[in-house]
Design goal:
single chain; 103 residues; mainly beta; six-stranded antiparallel β-sheet; elongated
């Protein structure tokens, strides 16, 4: 498996990017690539908005998927963080597959 990622702080906005590739041949073969782009931006003094895009390409069994996500992190006085988030995922096959949300 190959994983490459990084982030860059532009001051007001932080950018994130990652790329992963996994190749396994034989029984249970895998040939997939994952792309992840995201950003965070502060909202007021206690909140941060998160935007994310993930794409999964699988050439063996066509388990392709893509996800768009938006989240909000709020520093709560009674708890470390409150994190409501929502995501829209589009799959190109009927097999069960998860695309994880990052924080």
């Amino acid at each position: 498996m190959t994983l490459l990622g990084g982030n860059y702080d532009l001051g007001v906005v932080k950018l994130f990017a990652a790329y992963a590739q996994e190749n396994v041949y034989g029984v249970g073969a895998l040939d997939q690539k994952d792309y992840h782009l995201g950003l965070t931006a502060p909202v007021g003094s206690a909140g941060t908005v998160e935007l994310s895009y993930i794409r999964k390409d699988d050439t063996v069994v066509n388990k392709d998927a893509q996800q768009y996500a938006i989240g909000y992190v709020h520093k709560c006085p009674s708890a470390p963080l409150c994190t409501p988030a929502t995501a829209v995922e589009q799959r190109q096959c009927s097999q069960v597959q998860s695309v994880d949300r990052w924080q």
